[in-house]
Amino acid sequence: MNISDIAVSEYVEVDVDERLAKVRSIFERENPKGLVVTEDGEYAGVVGEKQLMRSRMEDDTKVSAVMRPAPSVDRHEDVRETARLLVEGDVKIAPVYEGEKLYGIVTVDQILAAVVESLDAITVGQIATEDVIGIGETESVGHAINRLRENGVSRLPVLNDSDLAGVITTNDIVEFVVRDQERQGSGDRAGDIDRMLDIPVYDIMSSPVVTATEDETARAVVERMFDNEVSGLVVTPAGTDNVAGIVTKTDVLRALTFTEQDSMDVQITNVDLLDGTSREHVVESIEQVADKYAEMQVIHAHVRLHAHKEKLRGTPLIQCQIRLRTNEGQVGGSGEGYGAEHAFHVALDKLERNVLEIKGVNADEEYRGQLLRKLGEL
């Protein structure tokens, strides 16, 4: 299947200098699936509806202020490579071209809807993120915003002690702020914002939570996401309220790029942040760690880069997360540093320590089994 089979023409094309007031009216009037932004007739970026809704910028602001760079896709590209481009660009929408002519757009939802019937072979346990960032239900919305921003995620499980009580997403926060401002009208915005930041997460979280279990198929959870109009589910062990992971549409999309080749499949989200280092260096470094532990077969590696606003002499603080999908389960490492290369190597060191720990645990279990067998022979 190639992208021409699923690309749609429900888009609007605007210039980078177009005012947000007009762009918002376009979305309200025409309800497009996306907006393609051009500059002097050349493709410049995209704007999705959620990006536009989250933006509280003034009407006179140019659309370029909320535009996201996104890879353009040839209409004959296959679904697997398009999925990779969307994941590595950390975007939900991309323009589709036929030569230099804009053919349509493709979204994450369109790809997943097209392949959903073939997702029975993938389980939630294979693709879910296990290292979950959560928040207590009595913590403030301000703390939730900081945690979302610092970790580059869009949702947080809300916990009552260790039990799942709800989930809070960036959309929940934006919708709450918009509703509150519409209700309050004009006034002291600074005071309103301070008050909203102090509100406990419990007051705006979504509950009950739509969940999944590790043994469910990717097809089942994608259909559940579509039915409930959500982009991610909290993973819980069957019959419990404990949090075991998070599975999102992006996780499923990423699984489409997994290969069965002998060489390691490495995927980098926000690849444009790789200044000072290269994709080849990233791949070689991860392969070197994996090669040290030949018994651990790495099926897929995912590197996610996220830039913070903080800078040192013009170099941004980067968070790097590395996750390996192996025949012995998932293992990861994360770290921060100024510049992608520094952050990557901090995360790589943590990854290697975590791999060593897993190997050590496995070795201990093997030794324990050997000892018990010997004792049984006495």
Outline of this structure?
This protein has 378 residues and is an alpha/beta fold. The protein has helices at residues 20-30, 49-54, 79-89, 108-115, 124-127, 141-151, 170-184, 189-197, 218-228, 249-255, 279-291, 340-377, and strands at 11-15, 34-39, 42-47, 73-74, 93-98, 101-107, 135-136, 155-160, 163-169, 211-212, 232-235, 245-248, 265-269, 298-312, 315-326, 329-338.
Count of individual beta strands: 16
**Molecular shape:** globular
In CATH, the topology of the largest domain is named CBS-domain
Strand order within the widest beta sheet: 13-14-15-16
Q: Classify the secondary structure makeup into a structural class.
A: alpha/beta
Number of domains: 3
Helix fraction bin: 25-40%
Q: List low-confidence stretches.
A: 361-365
Mean pLDDT: 83
CATH architecture of the largest domain: Roll
Helix and strand element order: EHEEHEHEEHHEHEEHHEHEEHEHEEEH
Rg computed from alpha carbons, rounded to a whole number of angstroms: 23 Å
The CATH superfamily of the largest domain is known as CBS-domain
In DSSP terms (H or I, runs of 4 or more residues), the helix count works out at: 12
Q: Per DSSP, what share of the residues sits in E-state strands of 2 or more residues?
A: 25-35%
End-to-end separation in angstroms reads 62 Å
CATH class of the largest domain: Alpha Beta
